[in-house]
Amino acid sequence: MKHLSLLITLFITLSVNAQTTFQCCGTSTVAPELTPGFSSTQVALTANVPSPNLAVTASTDLPNTEYLITKRNTPAMDGSGTAPDTTGGGGDVIIGSSATGVFTPGSLNRYGVTLSAGDTFDVIAIGYDLSVVKVLTDSLLNGVTASMAPCCGLFNIMAIALQQPALAGFCDSVTNAGVNGSSDVNDMNDVLTVFDAFSDGQTSVNSVLYVMQTINGAGLYISPECGGTGQNNFLPYGVNLAARYGYDVEGTIAVEKLSDVSLFMMYPNPVKGSDLNIMFTTTKEVDLSVNVYDALGQRVYAQILGNISGDQALQIPTNNLTSGTYSVELTDGYSNQIRKLVIQ
Length: 344
What we know:
Elements: H1 4-11, E1 21-24, E2 33-34, E3 37-38, E4 54-56, E5 64-75, E6 92-98, E7 120-128, H2 130-142, H3 154-161, H4 170-176, H5 188-196, H6 205-217, E8 237-248, E9 254-258, E10 261-267, E11 276-293, E12 299-316, E13 324-331, E14 336-343
Parallel strand pairs: 3-8
Antiparallel strand pairs: 1-8, 2-4, 5-6, 5-7, 7-8, 9-10, 10-11, 11-12, 11-13, 13-14
Protein backbone atom coordinates (compact mmCIF):
# COMPACT_ATOMS: atom_id res chain seq x y z
CA MET A 1 0.00 0.00 0.00
CA LYS A 2 3.02 2.32 -0.02
CA HIS A 3 2.08 3.64 -3.47
CA LEU A 4 -1.54 4.39 -2.49
CA SER A 5 -1.06 8.07 -1.74
CA LEU A 6 0.80 8.73 -5.00
CA LEU A 7 -1.72 6.88 -7.12
CA ILE A 8 -4.70 8.51 -5.46
CA THR A 9 -3.13 11.91 -6.11
CA LEU A 10 -2.69 11.04 -9.79
CA PHE A 11 -6.02 9.30 -10.11
CA ILE A 12 -8.71 11.39 -8.43
CA THR A 13 -10.24 14.61 -9.70
CA LEU A 14 -13.22 16.10 -7.92
CA SER A 15 -16.39 15.36 -9.88
CA VAL A 16 -19.28 17.79 -9.52
CA ASN A 17 -22.36 18.61 -11.53
CA ALA A 18 -21.85 22.37 -11.40
CA GLN A 19 -19.52 24.95 -9.94
CA THR A 20 -22.41 26.83 -8.39
CA THR A 21 -23.74 27.73 -4.98
CA PHE A 22 -27.51 27.58 -4.52
CA GLN A 23 -29.14 29.34 -1.59
CA CYS A 24 -32.25 31.09 -0.43
CA CYS A 25 -33.60 33.35 0.95
CA GLY A 26 -31.88 36.32 2.63
CA THR A 27 -29.37 38.70 1.11
CA SER A 28 -26.88 37.64 3.78
CA THR A 29 -27.51 33.88 3.45
CA VAL A 30 -24.26 31.91 3.29
CA ALA A 31 -24.20 28.21 2.38
CA PRO A 32 -21.94 25.85 4.35
CA GLU A 33 -19.01 24.48 2.39
CA LEU A 34 -16.67 21.55 2.88
CA THR A 35 -13.05 21.91 1.85
CA PRO A 36 -13.15 20.18 -1.56
CA GLY A 37 -10.89 17.22 -2.21
CA PHE A 38 -10.46 13.48 -1.99
CA SER A 39 -9.11 11.47 0.93
CA SER A 40 -5.74 9.84 0.35
CA THR A 41 -6.69 7.26 2.98
CA GLN A 42 -9.25 4.59 2.25
CA VAL A 43 -12.03 4.01 4.76
CA ALA A 44 -13.35 0.63 5.90
CA LEU A 45 -17.06 -0.14 5.64
CA THR A 46 -17.34 -0.47 9.42
CA ALA A 47 -15.04 2.44 10.35
CA ASN A 48 -16.16 6.01 10.99
CA VAL A 49 -15.47 8.56 8.30
CA PRO A 50 -13.36 11.37 9.85
CA SER A 51 -15.18 14.49 11.01
CA PRO A 52 -15.74 16.82 8.02
CA ASN A 53 -13.74 20.00 7.62
CA LEU A 54 -16.02 22.99 7.03
CA ALA A 55 -14.24 25.68 5.07
CA VAL A 56 -17.30 27.97 5.27
CA THR A 57 -19.80 28.00 8.13
CA ALA A 58 -23.47 28.56 7.33
CA SER A 59 -25.13 31.86 8.16
CA THR A 60 -27.48 32.10 11.15
CA ASP A 61 -30.59 31.78 8.97
CA LEU A 62 -29.42 28.23 8.19
CA PRO A 63 -29.20 26.86 11.75
CA ASN A 64 -28.95 23.21 10.66
CA THR A 65 -25.90 21.98 8.77
CA GLU A 66 -25.97 18.33 7.76
CA TYR A 67 -24.24 16.18 5.19
CA LEU A 68 -25.55 14.35 2.14
CA ILE A 69 -23.70 11.25 0.93
CA THR A 70 -23.81 10.23 -2.73
CA LYS A 71 -22.46 7.14 -4.46
CA ARG A 72 -20.12 8.30 -7.20
CA ASN A 73 -20.83 7.20 -10.79
CA THR A 74 -24.22 5.78 -9.70
CA PRO A 75 -26.98 8.02 -11.08
CA ALA A 76 -30.30 8.41 -9.31
CA MET A 77 -32.79 6.40 -11.33
CA ASP A 78 -36.29 7.38 -12.41
CA GLY A 79 -39.45 5.56 -11.40
CA SER A 80 -39.00 2.95 -14.12
CA GLY A 81 -35.62 1.99 -12.69
CA THR A 82 -34.21 1.76 -16.21
CA ALA A 83 -33.00 5.31 -16.86
CA PRO A 84 -31.34 8.09 -14.86
CA ASP A 85 -33.68 10.59 -13.25
CA THR A 86 -33.28 14.05 -14.76
CA THR A 87 -35.04 16.07 -12.05
CA GLY A 88 -33.10 19.26 -11.56
CA GLY A 89 -30.46 18.00 -13.96
CA GLY A 90 -30.00 14.62 -12.30
CA GLY A 91 -26.86 13.41 -10.59
CA ASP A 92 -25.43 10.70 -8.36
CA VAL A 93 -27.92 8.99 -6.05
CA ILE A 94 -28.10 10.05 -2.41
CA ILE A 95 -27.53 6.94 -0.30
CA GLY A 96 -27.76 8.59 3.11
CA SER A 97 -27.28 11.66 5.25
CA SER A 98 -25.55 12.48 8.51
CA ALA A 99 -26.22 15.17 11.08
CA THR A 100 -22.56 15.23 12.12
CA GLY A 101 -20.72 14.03 9.03
CA VAL A 102 -19.32 11.11 11.00
CA PHE A 103 -20.76 7.77 9.84
CA THR A 104 -19.80 4.27 8.75
CA PRO A 105 -20.06 3.69 4.98
CA GLY A 106 -21.54 0.25 5.54
CA SER A 107 -24.57 1.76 7.30
CA LEU A 108 -25.72 3.73 4.25
CA ASN A 109 -28.72 2.36 2.39
CA ARG A 110 -31.39 4.17 0.38
CA TYR A 111 -33.49 2.52 -2.36
CA GLY A 112 -31.44 -0.61 -1.70
CA VAL A 113 -28.28 1.16 -2.93
CA THR A 114 -25.32 0.47 -0.64
CA LEU A 115 -21.53 0.72 -0.61
CA SER A 116 -19.08 -2.14 -0.88
CA ALA A 117 -15.35 -2.56 -1.27
CA GLY A 118 -14.25 -0.77 -4.41
CA ASP A 119 -16.91 1.96 -4.32
CA THR A 120 -16.36 5.71 -4.12
CA PHE A 121 -18.64 8.18 -2.38
CA ASP A 122 -18.86 11.93 -1.89
CA VAL A 123 -19.96 14.07 1.05
CA ILE A 124 -21.51 17.53 0.64
CA ALA A 125 -22.71 19.98 3.29
CA ILE A 126 -26.21 21.43 3.16
CA GLY A 127 -27.62 24.17 5.37
CA TYR A 128 -31.32 24.60 6.10
CA ASP A 129 -33.81 25.42 8.86
CA LEU A 130 -35.31 22.22 10.23
CA SER A 131 -37.94 24.09 12.23
CA VAL A 132 -39.42 25.57 9.04
CA VAL A 133 -39.51 22.15 7.38
CA LYS A 134 -41.20 20.61 10.45
CA VAL A 135 -43.92 23.28 10.53
CA LEU A 136 -44.44 23.06 6.78
CA THR A 137 -44.69 19.26 6.80
CA ASP A 138 -47.09 19.14 9.75
CA SER A 139 -49.29 21.92 8.38
CA LEU A 140 -49.48 20.49 4.89
CA LEU A 141 -50.32 16.99 6.08
CA ASN A 142 -52.71 17.86 8.89
CA GLY A 143 -53.78 21.49 8.47
CA VAL A 144 -56.83 23.09 6.92
CA THR A 145 -57.17 26.35 5.01
CA ALA A 146 -59.24 29.34 6.13
CA SER A 147 -62.14 27.83 4.18
CA MET A 148 -61.69 24.55 6.13
CA ALA A 149 -60.36 22.63 3.13
CA PRO A 150 -57.54 20.14 3.79
CA CYS A 151 -54.14 21.63 3.06
CA CYS A 152 -53.28 18.51 1.09
CA GLY A 153 -55.68 19.79 -1.55
CA LEU A 154 -53.16 22.51 -2.35
CA PHE A 155 -51.04 19.95 -4.13
CA ASN A 156 -53.79 19.38 -6.66
CA ILE A 157 -53.61 23.08 -7.49
CA MET A 158 -49.81 23.07 -7.53
CA ALA A 159 -49.77 19.98 -9.76
CA ILE A 160 -51.84 21.86 -12.35
CA ALA A 161 -50.15 25.26 -11.97
CA LEU A 162 -46.65 23.80 -12.11
CA GLN A 163 -47.57 21.09 -14.65
CA GLN A 164 -46.28 18.38 -12.34
CA PRO A 165 -48.98 15.69 -12.00
CA ALA A 166 -46.94 13.74 -9.42
CA LEU A 167 -47.48 16.52 -6.87
CA ALA A 168 -51.17 15.63 -6.58
CA GLY A 169 -50.29 12.49 -4.63
CA PHE A 170 -47.79 14.18 -2.32
CA CYS A 171 -49.61 13.64 0.98
CA ASP A 172 -50.35 9.98 0.33
CA SER A 173 -46.73 9.35 -0.65
CA VAL A 174 -45.39 11.02 2.49
CA THR A 175 -47.75 9.26 4.92
CA ASN A 176 -47.13 5.93 3.18
CA ALA A 177 -43.43 6.50 3.90
CA GLY A 178 -44.19 6.82 7.62
CA VAL A 179 -44.16 10.60 7.98
CA ASN A 180 -47.39 11.83 9.56
CA GLY A 181 -46.34 15.13 11.11
CA SER A 182 -43.57 17.26 12.58
CA SER A 183 -42.59 14.64 15.14
CA ASP A 184 -41.50 12.38 12.29
CA VAL A 185 -39.15 14.98 10.78
CA ASN A 186 -36.05 15.32 12.93
CA ASP A 187 -33.08 15.39 10.57
CA MET A 188 -32.11 15.49 6.90
CA ASN A 189 -32.78 11.78 6.49
CA ASP A 190 -36.45 12.45 7.36
CA VAL A 191 -36.47 15.52 5.13
CA LEU A 192 -35.28 13.35 2.25
CA THR A 193 -38.21 11.01 2.87
CA VAL A 194 -40.56 13.97 2.44
CA PHE A 195 -38.72 15.24 -0.63
CA ASP A 196 -38.84 11.77 -2.22
CA ALA A 197 -42.58 12.34 -2.63
CA PHE A 198 -41.93 15.12 -5.13
CA SER A 199 -40.84 12.58 -7.73
CA ASP A 200 -41.41 8.97 -8.67
CA GLY A 201 -37.71 8.13 -8.70
CA GLN A 202 -34.60 8.28 -6.60
CA THR A 203 -33.14 11.46 -5.13
CA SER A 204 -29.95 13.27 -6.11
CA VAL A 205 -28.55 16.50 -4.67
CA ASN A 206 -29.82 18.30 -7.76
CA SER A 207 -33.32 16.96 -7.23
CA VAL A 208 -33.19 18.08 -3.57
CA LEU A 209 -32.39 21.58 -4.82
CA TYR A 210 -35.21 21.29 -7.32
CA VAL A 211 -37.69 20.46 -4.56
CA MET A 212 -36.55 23.39 -2.42
CA GLN A 213 -36.78 25.74 -5.38
CA THR A 214 -40.21 24.34 -6.25
CA ILE A 215 -41.49 24.92 -2.71
CA ASN A 216 -40.11 28.45 -2.66
CA GLY A 217 -41.49 29.16 -6.12
CA ALA A 218 -44.95 27.97 -5.06
CA GLY A 219 -45.05 29.92 -1.80
CA LEU A 220 -47.97 32.03 -2.97
CA TYR A 221 -50.09 28.87 -3.07
CA ILE A 222 -49.19 27.86 0.50
CA SER A 223 -51.20 29.85 3.03
CA PRO A 224 -50.02 30.45 6.62
CA GLU A 225 -52.59 27.90 7.78
CA CYS A 226 -50.75 25.33 5.68
CA GLY A 227 -47.26 26.25 6.84
CA GLY A 228 -46.43 28.95 4.34
CA THR A 229 -46.02 32.68 4.70
CA GLY A 230 -48.23 33.74 1.82
CA GLN A 231 -45.20 34.64 -0.26
CA ASN A 232 -42.51 32.96 -2.29
CA ASN A 233 -39.01 32.20 -0.97
CA PHE A 234 -39.73 31.29 2.62
CA LEU A 235 -37.77 28.02 2.96
CA PRO A 236 -34.11 28.90 3.65
CA TYR A 237 -31.37 26.58 2.39
CA GLY A 238 -27.87 26.68 1.00
CA VAL A 239 -25.50 24.24 -0.68
CA ASN A 240 -22.36 24.53 -2.81
CA LEU A 241 -22.32 21.74 -5.39
CA ALA A 242 -18.61 22.21 -6.00
CA ALA A 243 -17.58 21.79 -2.36
CA ARG A 244 -17.56 17.99 -2.13
CA TYR A 245 -15.17 15.64 -0.40
CA GLY A 246 -14.70 12.09 -1.66
CA TYR A 247 -13.63 8.78 -0.17
CA ASP A 248 -12.63 5.34 -1.42
CA VAL A 249 -14.05 2.30 0.36
CA GLU A 250 -11.24 0.06 1.55
CA GLY A 251 -10.32 -2.54 -1.05
CA THR A 252 -10.77 -0.27 -4.08
CA ILE A 253 -7.38 -0.94 -5.61
CA ALA A 254 -6.47 -4.26 -4.08
CA VAL A 255 -6.45 -6.77 -6.93
CA GLU A 256 -5.38 -10.28 -7.75
CA LYS A 257 -1.70 -10.73 -8.49
CA LEU A 258 -0.69 -10.25 -12.11
CA SER A 259 2.96 -11.30 -12.24
CA ASP A 260 4.63 -8.28 -10.65
CA VAL A 261 1.73 -5.84 -10.90
CA SER A 262 0.41 -5.05 -7.43
CA LEU A 263 -2.17 -2.32 -8.12
CA PHE A 264 -4.56 -1.67 -10.99
CA MET A 265 -7.35 0.92 -11.15
CA MET A 266 -9.36 2.94 -13.71
CA TYR A 267 -11.16 6.28 -13.69
CA PRO A 268 -13.76 7.42 -14.56
CA ASN A 269 -15.96 4.36 -14.84
CA PRO A 270 -18.52 4.74 -16.38
CA VAL A 271 -16.77 7.09 -18.80
CA LYS A 272 -18.52 9.62 -21.01
CA GLY A 273 -16.85 12.10 -23.31
CA SER A 274 -13.38 11.84 -21.78
CA ASP A 275 -10.30 9.65 -21.80
CA LEU A 276 -10.07 6.62 -19.52
CA ASN A 277 -7.30 6.94 -16.93
CA ILE A 278 -5.44 3.77 -15.93
CA MET A 279 -3.08 3.64 -12.95
CA PHE A 280 -1.02 0.68 -11.73
CA THR A 281 2.20 -0.19 -9.93
CA THR A 282 4.83 -2.80 -10.71
CA THR A 283 7.21 -4.13 -8.08
CA LYS A 284 9.99 -4.68 -10.63
CA GLU A 285 10.56 -4.27 -14.36
CA VAL A 286 7.97 -6.20 -16.36
CA ASP A 287 6.88 -6.29 -20.02
CA LEU A 288 3.20 -5.25 -20.20
CA SER A 289 0.46 -4.53 -22.73
CA VAL A 290 -3.05 -3.14 -22.32
CA ASN A 291 -6.02 -4.26 -24.44
CA VAL A 292 -9.67 -3.25 -24.62
CA TYR A 293 -12.31 -5.75 -25.80
CA ASP A 294 -15.95 -5.14 -26.68
CA ALA A 295 -18.89 -7.26 -25.52
CA LEU A 296 -18.29 -9.70 -28.42
CA GLY A 297 -14.70 -10.27 -27.38
CA GLN A 298 -13.23 -8.29 -30.26
CA ARG A 299 -10.17 -6.23 -29.45
CA VAL A 300 -10.87 -2.56 -30.14
CA TYR A 301 -7.74 -1.05 -28.63
CA ALA A 302 -4.21 -2.26 -27.94
CA GLN A 303 -1.09 -0.61 -26.60
CA ILE A 304 2.31 -2.17 -25.92
CA LEU A 305 3.79 -0.58 -22.83
CA GLY A 306 7.12 -2.42 -22.98
CA ASN A 307 9.43 -3.00 -20.03
CA ILE A 308 8.31 -0.69 -17.25
CA SER A 309 8.52 -0.51 -13.47
CA GLY A 310 7.11 1.52 -10.59
CA ASP A 311 4.03 3.75 -10.63
CA GLN A 312 2.43 4.05 -14.06
CA ALA A 313 -0.31 6.26 -15.50
CA LEU A 314 -1.77 6.22 -18.99
CA GLN A 315 -4.83 7.41 -20.84
CA ILE A 316 -6.97 5.54 -23.35
CA PRO A 317 -9.14 7.57 -25.76
CA THR A 318 -12.78 6.47 -25.75
CA ASN A 319 -14.43 8.97 -28.11
CA ASN A 320 -14.28 6.46 -30.97
CA LEU A 321 -15.98 3.70 -28.96
CA THR A 322 -19.75 3.27 -28.91
CA SER A 323 -21.77 3.11 -25.71
CA GLY A 324 -21.69 -0.28 -24.05
CA THR A 325 -19.74 -2.64 -21.81
CA TYR A 326 -16.07 -3.39 -22.45
CA SER A 327 -13.22 -5.29 -20.80
CA VAL A 328 -9.84 -3.70 -20.11
CA GLU A 329 -7.00 -6.20 -19.89
CA LEU A 330 -3.55 -5.63 -18.44
CA THR A 331 -1.28 -8.54 -19.39
CA ASP A 332 2.35 -9.61 -19.31
CA GLY A 333 1.76 -12.32 -21.93
CA TYR A 334 1.41 -15.09 -19.34
CA SER A 335 -1.27 -13.87 -16.94
CA ASN A 336 -3.68 -11.00 -16.96
CA GLN A 337 -6.00 -8.83 -14.91
CA ILE A 338 -9.32 -7.79 -16.45
CA ARG A 339 -11.56 -4.95 -15.31
CA LYS A 340 -15.06 -4.11 -16.56
CA LEU A 341 -15.53 -0.74 -18.28
CA VAL A 342 -18.81 1.01 -19.12
CA ILE A 343 -18.90 3.68 -21.82
CA GLN A 344 -21.96 5.91 -21.80
